[in-house]
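Observation: inputs received (chain + flavin-adenine dinucleotide).
Thought: call the complex predictor directly.
Action: predict_structure
Action Input:
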Amino acid sequence: MSKQPEAQRRAFLKGAGAAATLPLLGATAGAQANAPQQPWDREVDVVVVGSGAAGLSAALFAHEAGANVVVLEKGPTVGGTTARSGGVHFIPNNHLLRASGTTESKEDFLRFIVRITYPASYHPDAPRFGATEAEYALLETFYDEAAPAIEALEQMGAVTYMPMLDHNHEPFNDNFVELPENRCPRGRSIVCVPESIEEGRFYYNGGGGLGVDLIHLLRKATAARRIPILTRHAVEDLVVNGDDEVIGVVATTRKGTVRVGARRGVIFGSGGYLHNPAFRRTYMRTPTYGGCGIPTNQGDFLRLAGGLGASTGNLDQGWWMEVLLEEAIQSSDAPTGVWVVPGDSSLMVNRYGKRFCNEKNQPGGRPQTHFVWDPVAVEFPNRVSMMIWDKRAVELFGGIYGIQKAGEPLPKHVISGTTLAELADNIASRLTTVAQHTGDMTLDPNFTTNLQSSVEQFNQFARSGKDEQFRRGEAQGDIGWHYYGGVPKVDNPYPNELMHPLSDQGPYFAA
Ligand SMILES: Cc1cc2nc3c(=O)[nH]c(=O)nc-3n(C[C@H](O)[C@H](O)[C@H](O)COP(=O)(O)OP(=O)(O)OC[C@H]3O[C@@H](n4cnc5c(N)ncnc54)[C@H](O)[C@@H]3O)c2cc1C
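Observation:
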């Protein structure tokens, strides 16, 4: 991060919203807890902020480099969003790939990663493939450091890795397999080997571990090295000396404020800003409702670093998934994300009753179709959209990403109708109950007829096996993501395993 001039720094604080800046100013102005000359309550070489994968691995590496370390965690538990995650590491040229005989050169990886991260400036013959020096340096660092970091974690006995295996027990294919620039379509995705296998819990094929398993291993490794992890320690302020060096932090605990000195440095691994509504509103290009990240991720680092004049970037980016509207309205800490629209007799439509994407396209990519702007209607036509499914989907895919379980009462977010027309009426009524959260969104007057046509057309595509509109099921990634998370393979007599006609008979359902 580079330093910003004072005027920019003030502009940042203003832009971040008054509510967001209050704790920082309060701590400074009130108890002077951040004054450099005050005594420390505790002093170590390195303070690590946050106990997710970033924080715990930073703590381990700092310890291995000879530092004495403390980890401060704002939440009541260890693990952050990482402990809720799929735990899949995307590591170019990793040691497991190399052991299987595949070497991914730096040039090949950088060509591919610039192509997908900066498509508007990418050119295969341009210097740095079209990326700026700073962008390229970041991507180079990723290639240079990611695989050695993983190997180092193995060497220190903290984590052992295995390939992430798909539903066919093959190494999981990357997104963008079909791009010619992707010369390593399988094997970058790796997962930890869990310490033990619990009955009844999901693991990747072959017993690959999730984020919760990774955190367990990292936590065990920190405990073995006697690195303290102090939960309910929210870092609210930084202590800066006369040379503008950060020499410690101020954390709020249940017993009051503590000052922790850092002789050699402070490392932030404190996650994103998902649960800071002011930051979401400021930085996201389209209004969003929340997500599945840990609720203590409120952009504290952004606030503190911005307060010191650090410049930041890429804040409008995310790894996107749909959330169920009624759940997300209750709390931005949404329990269910829609990785892909589940089922084969299911589709997604907008307020016009029209499909607008390949429902099986990868999370991260597909959900960006919700951000399309219609300058004539002055609206985001796809922002709030409807998943539609039938009884077959309930029987075969119940319980997955919003589809109700067969034989159980309908969850609050599920809307039903005996016909598509009745379903449309019930969606319209439901929308009136959430109008203050949707920008007063209503269904277009042609929604019902369009929905009927969309289903009819989808059914034709399902019978022929070819989705002529959005090519659902054609990319290998569609198939990988459809089955991700242990989704069962079901009998489907039609040629495209991700498409089955919706029943001619209701009931039909929506969320
Ligand atoms: C359902 C789901 C599945 C995912 N699956 C994958 C996947 O398979 N692969 C992948 O690469 N990514 C995945 N992600 C994204 C991934 O989980 C995150 O990008 C990653 O875990 C971030 O790790 P982190 O250590 O930076 O942050 P976190 O794990 O969120 O840890 C940050 C920690 O910092 C703490 N903190 C925040 N502010 C302060 C403060 N002021 N003081 C002290 N502590 C603070 C938080 O409480 C939190 O514990 C997934 C995300 C979700 C929600």
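Thought: report the result.
Final Answer: The pocket of flavin-adenine dinucleotide is lined by residues 49-55, 72-75, 80-82, 84-88, 211, 234-235, 269-271, 292-294, 296-297, 300, 319, 337 (CB under 6 Å). The chain has a mean pLDDT of 92.
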